[in-house]
Amino acid sequence: MARRDGHERKVRGSQIRDSRTEKNRQDRHGGPSAGGQTPTSRTEASDGSIGTGDLDSVLDSFVESPETEAVTGRIERWLSVDRPVHLIGPTGCGKTALAMRAATQRDRPVVWINGDADLETTDLVGDYAEQERVSIRDNYIHNVTKSTDIVRDRWVDNPLTVAVREGATLVYNEFSRTKPAANNTLLSVFEEGVLELPGQRGDDRLVEVHPEFRAILTSNGTEYAGVHEPQDALLDRLVGVYMDYYGFETEVKIVRSHVPAAPEDLAERCVEVVRTVREEFDWTLGTRAAIIAAEGLTTVPAAERDDSLFTEVMTDVLASKVSNREELAAASDCVVDTLNTSGGDGR
To answer: Which class for 29: exposed (0-12), middle (13-18), buried (19 or more C-beta within 10 A)?
Structure first.
């Protein structure tokens, strides 16, 4: 898809996931999902690519536990009364997976946007990003052909507009990494139920929000690098749900759901070490670190998974969190102490 300036146009997140009802219908009738393929949406997004494989993988590894069910219930409560939900919490605490889980439970299409500093209003709502050529051939008089080519701009909806029109559930991941000015367009959507398309003309400038449209936004706290403080006017229209890392048992289940080859005792040791280091050094160390450690350990036969190997693998996982060798050495010592205290070989 080419822009008017000749550059390739990139749409930043127009994935739409079919509702469960439609997916089940396809299964019963031998449609795409019956053959193991990811179903595509009935509504084509602006760039025509609406694959959902990555989003399906998030849902496939989602862990049901009293903790996750409790937060999901809170999200569903607010969505049921048409209030946009803002999930706030540290990196790796499961915000994205929880948002996708709650969104798909609504049995409506799901549209995904991932925030970043380069995102602009047009990336959210759309733009005159294509040109189309209309050719007219007039053969009214025999043996005389009149040819006319008309080149005109064509409007292309981007993810927010697609969601608003179709009544989808919008999952706007890391929305606070987008500059506040770009997110101003959400104000009228949440308050007046109208989306304004700044580049559009005439009657097409305003889009009435579908009554089934809902939104779940996720973000880290403002203390994180690259995070902008959202404008008060927008925050006033959101319901905030603060999250933290899950408890020990839930984190173990999450590790095992992502690394099926990891035995339970191995997953427990990975989680125990991560939780100890997280508390000892006050690091933002998500469950993902335990998952990565478990992946590394399962590449080695069970008989060879001793404490020395465990320390080596976990040190590699933690290395990206430190600023110097001394801090890494201290973290490695913490791993050793935790292993000595916990006992067992994690096989």
So the answer is: exposed
Average pLDDT rounded to a whole number, residues 284-313: 94
Token representation of residue 26: 């396809």
For residue 312, give the H/E element and its range: helix 307-318
Residue 169 pLDDT > 70: yes
Range of the domain at 299: 248-342
Domain boundary among 174, 207, 242: 242
Give tens-digit pLDDT for 41-73: 333 333 322 334 456 666 677 888 999 999 999
Query: Whole-angstrom Cα distance, residue 251 to residue 32?
Result: 34
Count CB-CB contacts under 10 A for residue 330: 14
Residues 193 and 299 placed together within one structural domain of the fold:
no
pTM above the 0.85 mark? Answer: no
Q: Identify the helix (H) or strand (E) that includes residue 250.
A: helix 248-258
Which long-range CB contacts under 8 A does 5-9 form with residues at least 24 apart? 9/47, 9/129, 9/130, 9/156
